[in-house]
Write a structure and sequence with these properties.
alpha+beta, 4-stranded antiparallel β-sheet, two-stranded antiparallel sheet, 15 helices, disordered N terminus, binds cobalamin, binds iron/sulfur cluster
């Protein structure tokens, strides 16, 4: 029997995964060709992942990870709000996302890829003009990440299939997902060594920070797994302290119903009165708990054209968005992740931000919007008028 010792860093293939130097011993004993392929495949998958444009790639085994145990309780407590897809269940009535082995019993490994979407623009916490809106960093982009990540995953899938045909033929199932799979991606990203789950619930990589999109490939191939990324949050609690709507129930746990990202993107129709003030100037998504994270202080920016902001979306003009008409919405946001929200809800968010600015310059626009044919926009505009007039009245009388 021969032993081949490899540097784990070589097996891991891509930069940024924090276990360089750990070595592993692989026993080769009359190794059949297909087993040789499986030993080499992780290296080639990671090389190919880099070639197709991913910044990180790692492999996780399919296991009943401890983090997933809290998922049923999270759903039972209603923390997912109106995101009904999070509740989807299998025929036995079990939550699909709670245990991958149940919905995809064939899956043995999860290839987790990450794409850096950070661009060289200030953070929301660094530019503080309340009279301008804020669209979260990921949503400025030229291309919707579901498309850009899935395109790369599909190319990677094709390469894996080609390897299997060349060396086998070896039969295997390979399936890609971005968001839509029956899987809590961040848990698998942790066990693939891509990053740790921060107290803000985001995956953070020691070198790249947390401005990362995730995409996963489920496969029936039993591939050598990476080591989980160690937690580097330490005693820091900046994200928990900075959240303006107190959406964290505890470290690593979020009540989505209180999160501005949920309120601005997923919540349709009326926003409860008591939550509107906390939304500040956020129009679509929220970056605060990542903006304040020390691991994002030196996060590298990508030069990829697809991630660069569309015109007018960094600190956008609130009256532009609040009065946007369907045709302009379709043109401005064609192929953008912002299309996930309805025009009505985007305008509603802009009206709430106008109210929160307290700026009387918005009064003429708000008066027009109070008569808007869209009843959601109109009712929020009436509330906003009361708030801006009340605040300007209060500031005049206190002088
Ligand atoms: C639903 C969803 C949301 C919801 C709910 C978010 C949430 N935290 O649950 C809302 C709309 C609020 C949201 C917001 C955002 N999202 Co989102 N979202 C998802 C989606 C589709 C599912 C997430 C999910 O399963 N949530 C359920 C909860 C229970 O799982 P979890 O938060 O991942 O939590 C696990 C760990 O926290 C773990 N855990 C860790 N430590 C601890 C400690 C304790 C004590 C316990 C009990 C548990 C625990 O337990 C949980 C598993 O049960 C994923 C894609 C996917 N399929 O995974 C994208 C995803 C998580 N979102 C993403 C992004 C980019 C965002 C935003 C940054 C967008 C924005 N700028 O507005 C914000 C970030 C807000 C935040 N702090 O989470 C990325 C995250 C990338 C990254 N680097 O982590 C993902 C992976 C999408 C992608 N494909 O890239 N999102
Ligand atoms: S995204 Fe914003 S609202 Fe949501 S948890 Fe983070 S800081 Fe709070
Ligand atoms: S702000 Fe601090 S506690 Fe929060 S995710 Fe970053 S390092 Fe962890």
């Amino acid at each position: 029997m021969t032993f081949i010792t490899r540097k784990w860093s070589a097996v891991q293939g891509l930069a940024g995964i924090p276990h360089a130097g750990v070595s592993t011993v692989i026993a080769f004993s009359e190794v059949p060709a297909t087993d040789c392929l499986l030993l080499d495949l992780p290296i080639r998958i990671k090389e190919r992942a880099r070639e197709v444009g991913f910044d990180l790639c790692g492999i996780a085994p399919v296991r009943e990870f401890g983090e997933l145990e809290s998922f049923p309780a999270w759903i039972a407590a209603g923390h997912h709000g109106e995101m009904k897809y999070m509740e989807s269940r299998d025929q036995a009535g079990e939550l699909k996302r709670a245990l991958l082995a149940r919905v995809a019993p064939w899956a043995r490994s999860v290839i987790v890829c990450a794409l850096n979407y950070n661009t060289a623009h200030p953070y929301s916490t660094q530019t503080g003009d309340a009279s301008q809106g804020w669209i979260s960093r990921y949503a400025w982009s030229q291309e919707d990440y579901h498309d850009s990540v899935l395109r790369r995953l599909r190319t990677l899938e094709d390469s894996i299939r080609a390897e299997l045909v060349n060396h086998g033929p070896l039969d295997a199932t390979v399936r890609s997902y971005v968001d839509t799979g029956p899987i809590v991606e961040r848990v698998y990203a942790k066990y693939a060594g891509v990053g740790w789950i921060g107290k803000n619930t985001c995956i953070i990589n020691q070198k790249l920070g947390s401005w990362l999109f995730l995409g996963v490939i489920l496969t029936s191939l039993e591939l050598a797994a990476d080591l989980p990324a160690p937690d580097r949050c330490g005693r820091c609690t900046r994200c928990l302290d900075a959240c303006p709507t107190h959406a964290f129930i505890g470290p690593g746990q979020l009540d989505a119903r209180l999160c501005i990202s949920y309120l601005t993107i997923e919540k349709r129709g009326d926003i409860p009165d008591e939550l509107r003030s906390g939304m500040g100037r956020h129009i679509f998504g929220c970056d605060i708990c990542q903006d304040v994270c020390p691991w994002n202080r030196k996060a590298p920016a990508t030069a990829a054209a697809e991630s660069q902001p569309r015109g007018g979306l960094v600190n956008p003009a609130l009256d532009w968005l609040a009065e946007m008409q369907p045709e302009e919405f379709r043109t401005v946001f064609r192929g953008s992740p912002i299309r996930r929200t309805k025009l009505s809800d985007l305008r509603r968010n802009a009206v709430i931000a106008m109210a929160n600015s307290g700026n009387v310059k918005f009064l003429p626009t708000l008066k027009r919007l109070a008569e808007d044919p869209d009843s959601v926009v109109a009712s929020h505009a009436r509330w906003a008028l009361g708030k801006v007039c009340g605040e300007s009245h209060a500031s005049r009388t206190s002088r």
